[in-house]
Each structure stands twice: as structure tokens, then as C-alpha cells.
Amino acid sequence: MTDVGTENLLEVSGLRVQFAASGGKALRAVDGVSFHVKRGETLGIVGESGCGKSVACMSILKLVPGAKYAGGRALFDGHDTLQMNEKRLRALRGARVAMIFQEPMAALNPVHTIGQQICEAIRLHLPLSGAEARALATETLRQVRVPDAERVFNSYPFSLSGGLRQRAMIAMALVCKPDLLIADEPTTALDVTIQSQIMALIRRLREQTGMAVILISHDLGLISESADDILVMYAGRVCEYAPADELVNNPLHPYTLGLIQSRPSGIGVGAGMSADASAGGRLRTIPGNVPSIEERPAGCPFHPRCERASERCAAEVPPETAPVAGHTVSCWLYAEEM
Ligand SMILES: Nc1ncnc2c1ncn2[C@@H]1O[C@H](COP(=O)(O)OP(=O)(O)OP(=O)(O)O)[C@@H](O)[C@H]1O
Ligand code: SF4
Ligand SMILES: [Mg+2]
Prior knowledge:
alpha/beta, Rossmann fold, 13 strands
């Protein structure tokens, strides 16, 4: 991970996204989150359900229903998307920034064939004739390793398997050659073989086209196989942010350690807490549950579940520090006496 600079394709800083609760209270789904992605690189975002991964990433395109974008910036190629009007955002969406959603059926239109939908995405953003769009759509289906691309082109989503639907959605996302692909749990609903094929496909396309990728998952192992940098989120905040190898080999935040220890095989590296987990032969789960957005505790939001919590953790939000260059953590264990 390098310093924020002009070469970052995306620079999100201090992002705050809120929802209105009854009684006028603001629910802070994303609370001061910063990250950046360079061209050709993959940022992995990891955390348990409800920690704000999807809201943070969908906010880049202002696609969160009912959200108030309460603060921060999301500079895409130097322009703040949070300040853009719908017209400018529509020109970005699908063309320069594309998304793959967890559930393909939610993104695909059931009454149109896969081919019609991919051609529509092309028609919106590229000046191609009908025949050229059809050829590009079929070619893109082949690129995402859809067997019998002509047949899939003419099929309706419901008639395809989950794996084929997911590939069709990936083809739709990639057809206009986006600069940034946001893949939100792209393989969670799929079996392990298709999951690894799709992850390999995203890596290959990134290498071929130089697109940047944000990969969201609750699975740190999956993320660590593809990401250059990893951002760990909890309860709407950043716990830890570091290059992937550094994060996995030298995890600092107790929540990151918990995520590593709760994987059946650690993360496949020798150091850190994964070694501890395998030595004992026991799989440790993080005690307790993620607090609901209405019931987030004061201080460090992880404190009710943290073995290392002190009184201060329950009272004050920990500051972000960088105990190792390029590796930031928000935890009182690493804060100088403040
Ligand atoms: N439209 C909405 N209105 C109110 N609250 C919402 C809305 N969308 C999300 N939230 C809340 O914001 C928080 C963050 O949600 P988000 O979907 O970003 O979590 P996530 O990390 O992507 O979780 P998952 O792994 O389950 O996809 C959650 O507590 C969720 O309930
Ligand atoms: S600040 Fe305290 S409660 Fe939070 S992770 Fe660090 S030690 Fe645990
Ligand atoms: Mg999500």
C-alpha cells in the first residue's frame, strides 16, 4: 500500500453514511471510513454481516436507498462522486464503475434474455451497431468462460444455473471494460469449484485490462488470495488497513485476529494467530454477536466481544495509528499514551 496520491483511481476519505431511525436519530452505517484503490490493484474489504461493507461501496455510486451521505469524499479519477448529480452518476455507472452483486437474480431482469440485457448495457455506453453489440456480448460471455455462449445469450435468467447466471452478470458488468469493478460477495451463493473459477476469472481480467477491483467478502481467506490491500471493517468503522501479506502475517487488531482464528485452516500462512489456532487444533469463534446498527456500544464498538478490552475501550473511540509503516489500526493497544 502506498501513500494517497494522484495515481489512485479511487480515494475515499472520511465517508459517513447514515439512515434515519424513528425519533429522528441518525443510524451510522458507515462512520468515517477511508481507503484507496490504484489502477490494476485489488482492495479486499472484509468483516462480518452488517458491518457496512456494501453500504460503503454502493455509496461510491450513490446507490444506497434511503441513505444520507453525511460526510467525506469519494474521488473517482479526481472527481467527487458524492457531489455528482444523477446524470453524471448514470454516465459512470456500468461504464467506468461496474458492480457485481451477491444475488444475480436481483440484478438481472427476468423478462429479458441475457443477450438483450448485455446489449442494453452496451447500447447505453458504447456507440456500436446492433450487430456489433451482439458480437461483443457473445465474445464477453465466452471470456467469462460461459460454455455455449450463443445459447446463453438467447436464454432467460431463470432457465440458467446459479453459476451461469453469475457469469452472465459478470459479463454484463465487464462488457464496457470498466476502470473499477466492485464485486460484492461475488461467489457466496456458488459452490466451491465455481467460486474458485470466478475468482480466477476476475484476477485474469484484472491482469489483462488493468481494471481496479474492490472485492467484498466476509471470508478473509478468500480475500487474501486476491487482494493487494485489505480493509477490515467492524460496526461501520475501519479496524485495520494494510497490504494483504502484512495483514495476514502480522494482524494487529483483536477483531482481525478473531477472523483469522475462526477459519478452519487459518489463512494458510505460518505466522500470527493462525499458527496458534492450528497448534491447538481447535477452531475459535469470536464470542458474542455484531451489535445491531441501533445498539452500537460507546467507545470501541468491538469492546463487548474483545478479550483485551480495558475500561478506556468502553468509554473512548480508539484513534487510528500506524505501528508499522503503511499498516494502520484503530485500537487502544497500539495508541501512544494520549
Ligand atoms: N436501506 C437501509 N436502511 C436502513 N439500514 C440499512 C439500510 N441498508 C443497510 N442498512 C444497515 O446498515 C448496516 C450496514 O449494512 P451493509 O449492508 O453495508 O452490511 P454488510 O457489511 O454489507 O453486511 P453483509 O455481509 O450481510 O452483506 C447494517 O446494520 C444494515 O442493517
Ligand atoms: S480498542 Fe480495546 S476493545 Fe477495541 S479492539 Fe482494541 S483492545 Fe479491544
Ligand atoms: Mg453486504
